[in-house]
Amino acid sequence: MDDGENRVKQEDCSEDKLGPGILTLTNKRLAFDKTQARIMDFSKRMGDTVLDVPLENVIKIWKEGLFIKKVCFTAKTDEGEQTYKFGVFNTKSWVKSIEQTMNKK
User: Fold this and answer.
1) pLDDT for 2
2) Residues of the chain with pLDDT > 70: what percent?
3) How many C-beta atoms surround the C-beta of residue 44 within 10 A?
4) In terms of DSSP H, where are the helices of the chain?
5) What does the DSSP 8-state code read for residue 91?
């Protein structure tokens, strides 16, 4: 994390295209780090950061799903606009936290 950057929320989850990992919301960005788990010894290792989006690049935030709920956001990237969908435990809380953090900036 950079100087002056604070973690707001973090959760172990899965993204539709990127797979399992840890979603982190800070006061400056949304990041997703891949994880690798082993069933044999119940270990989990952090992998590479595959998504690092500054909050000013987030265009839209919403939640979707009835049984399998997801928090979703669309962001401006080098490849154009990309949409990401994360299966988190409490989608309403994530949407609220992201919106509040963006409004503070």
Assistant:
1) 74
2) 90
3) 12
4) 91-104
5) H
CA dist., res. 11 & res. 77, Å (int): 23
Whether residue 41 has pLDDT greater than 70 = no
Q: Which residues pair with 23 in a beta bridge?
A: 11, 32
The pLDDT score that the predictor gives to residue 40 is 64
Q: Which DSSP symbol is given to 57?
A: G
Burial 13-40 (b: 16+ CB within 10 A, else e): bbbeebeebbbbbbebbbbbbbbeeeee
Tokens of 15: 């993204």
Tokens describing residue 63 = 């939640």
Burial 58-86 (b: 16+ CB within 10 A, else e): beebebeeeeebbbbbebeeeeeebebbb
| Dihedral (CA of 20, 22, 25, 29) sign | negative
Calculated CA dihedral for residues 55, 58, 59, 61, nearest 10 degrees: -100
